[in-house]
Structure formats: structure tokens, C-alpha cells
Description:
This protein is α/β, with parallel strands linked by helices. The chain folds into 2 domains: 5-131, NAD(P)-binding Rossmann-like Domain (Rossmann fold, 3-Layer(aba) Sandwich), CATH 3.40.50.720; 164-393 and 413-442, 2-Layer Sandwich (Dihydrodipicolinate Reductase, domain 2). Helices cover 32% and strands 23% of the residues. It is built from 11 helices and 18 strands. The strands form 3 sheets. Strands 7, 8, 9, 12, 13, 14, 15, 16, 17 and 18 form a 10-stranded mixed sheet that branches. A hairpin with a 4-residue loop joins strand 15 and strand 16 (363-371). Helix 1 (15-31) crosses helix 2 (49-61), helix 1 (15-31) packs across helix 10 (395-405) and helix 5 packs antiparallel against helix 11 (414-432). It starts with a strand and ends in an 11-residue tail after the last strand. The model has no long low-confidence stretch (mean pLDDT 93).
Amino acid sequence: MAADTTLIILGASGDLTSRLLLPALGQLLTRESGRSVRLHGAGMEDWTDEHWREVVKKSFSTTDADGAFAAVSETTYWRADITKPADLQKLLDDAEGRPALYFAVPPAVAEKSCLALSDVTIPEGTVLALEKPFGTDEASAHRLNQQLAKLVPEDQVFRIDHFLGRSTVLNLLGARFANRPFESVWSADDIASILIDYPEPLGLEGRAGYYDGAGALVDMIQSHLLQVMAFVTMEPPASLNQLDLRDATSAVLRATHVLDDDPVHNSRRARYTAGDVGERHFSSYVDEPGVDEARGTETLAEMTVEVRNTRWQGVPITLRSGKALSSSDRAVTVTFKPVRHLPGGFLGESEPSVLVFSLGPDTMSLGLNVNGADDPLELERVTLAADLGDGALKAYGEVLSGILDGDAMLAVRGDAAEQCWRIVQPVIDAWRANEVPLDEYPAGTAGPASWTD
């Protein structure tokens, strides 16, 4: 029986494929054993089919998906230059059902490959899946969008953001839209501030070639956290289909700007020096192999934005992410405004309520003030918490499910990708002009000592 879809991984010999894509595919096929998919790998390495199958089998085993290998046991590998039309044509001609090209390659290679596809006969329904970053600025993202539009319809282009495959991010939608207590207070009338923070204990992990040219701002805030912010702040969509949901997220991104149009006072940057994260020692970032100190690349970035619409005007939204940090508390934190009036006679502090969505492990908590057990007039702080589970699939499993189903709900739309570049560009310009100092922090700390807030 012919497969419904042929998943063609371009860059099959790379780390992204073996570490993330294949384990997620194995998990997906284990959970949904009825899927009919053919797997094909293509890369510059001179591998045999047998070697490729061993790579697939080993990757499947990392998610206890050994049994799923039978579904793709006839997978094949072809050494190919994906910037050459002839090689791309052969890959597409050999596909069964709908081809899905997954570009697990550096962005510059993916862009060259998309140009080469102009001279290829592309089967109807072909899906193109591209990893971030999408372009290097708004203009380059727009050019790439124009090129992709010549190849396939927009709903067949999957700009991958695996953060949108995180169950916790999707849980935001349930909490927001399925609970009237939250639905009615989800605006500037009741919310004082929002923080989206994604600290990482890891360092470069061999990615200096990419990371030193990108930094934390582009690698995380531009590529991921702005998309999370769009889920937090978008207007209620009519449905969760890809058209309505992506209309809603794109609209809120268009309304997003650096707070007060002042990137100097509303952004911060820093990079780590030598230190220890747990039992692991880190050299200073500038001493890492492949790092060019003259670039002034930051490993910790923060910027504050605002959404200029009726719902959110005046609410500061801070996005922050960095590497080699002591904290691993990755979360969306929504801080509500204080009560308008606290009746006289209560004792203790009446702190604002705080709603926290953890981005791993998946939990949701709400901090509230309640009457104390010993003295009913003395306020005490309690936290209501819910364990949301690990999710049925890894983030990339949810992404691959959408690609194989042709459902672009969790893919970034072209205009949204351009808007994310527009939003961060004033900060990039201010940093390049050295208008914002490049602070330092020892690895294993929470950040620069001067960042006390």
C-alpha cells in the first residue's frame, strides 16, 4: 500500500535530525500506529541505506519507540546536494503520496534550496517545513516569503517553532478561553504586567557557529518568545483552525512595539563569564571555541514591549532568555493589579494575584490572598497549583503531526515571521550602536548583579 505522505528530511545526517526529529517521529508513530508514512533521508554524508536505518532505529530507541521502527523499516537515504534542482527533483519524483520536505539545515542552505525549487516540478500538495530563524531581518524574511509563495500555497508552508508544539503553550488557550473567571479579567483593566522568561542552564553546546552570529535576542526572543506572547495576548479566535488562530496571532503581533518606542531604556543585554552551573564548569563565553569576542554577542537578552490596542494598552510585557543561568524556572507570569479597596481591619500584606504557566515541567499555579488559619483577619499567601502533565507528544512530535496532516495551526505564518523581525529591529539597532551596555554575569548566577528587578 502506498504511503499517504513521504517525509523527506533534508539534512538527515545532522544533529537536529537524530536528536529531535527522529525521536519525535518514533514517539508519534508509537502513539498513532495507524499512520501511513514513508521516510526518506537526504544529506551530504555518503551514507548507505543500512547506516541510515541504524541511525533511525537508535533515535527511536531514545523515546522507547523501538516498535515503531517497523512502520519505516524500508526507509532509504540518498546523498544529495539540496541546492541543485536535479537532486531535489529526484527526491520529489520518488515520493509516495504527498511529499513533505523538512529542511533540517542551516537557514542559508534552506534559502538556496528554495531558490533551486523554482526549477523543479513540485507535486500538488507538497509541504515545505523550514526551521527558524526565518531570514535575518524583516526585508530578508519578506523576500523568502515571496519566493515560497511562488512554490506552494501559504497553508503548505510550515515555519517551524517547536515552542508552539509545547503542550503548556497550548494550555494557555484552554485556561484563557474555557474559564470565565480568566476570560473576563484578561486585559489592561485587571492585569498589571506580563513576564515571559526562558532561562537555560546550558551553554553553547557546540553551536557557536550559529549562536555567535545570532545571540539570545534572535535565537530566543525573536524566534520563540514573541510567538508565545501572541498566544497570551491575542483576541479570542472564532475557532482553533489554522486560519482563525493565525489571523488572531498575526493581528496582535502587528500591534506590538518596543515599550514607548525606546529600545535604549527598555532592553538589556549581558554575556556570561566563567562560573559553575551545578557541577558543570563553564569558561567565559568569549573563550568558547568559535566565538568572536569582537561581535559583542549577548547570551542574556531582555526587552519590554507593549501591545497597542484596546485590550492591552499600558501593560508592559517583558521577554527574557539567556544561557548558563542558575534558574530553570521557565514560565509565563501574569501579575494582576491590586484590589481597588481592601477593607480596614485586615492585617498583613495584600499582594497582587499572580498566575504562572510553567514552560516545563507543565504546571499552572495561582497565588492568592486568603484568611489565615490562626487569625482570620490576618491575610496569608497560598498557591493553588495544577499539574498539567507532560503532554502526549514531545514538542517536535506535535509539529510533525501537523506537517503529516497538512494542518498549519501550529506553524508560523509568513506575515507573523516578518512582524517578529520588525518588533526586535529597534533593539538590534540600539545594540549595534552600543547605546545599551553589554553587562556580564558569572555562569551559574541569575544574571548581572545590577539586574535586581
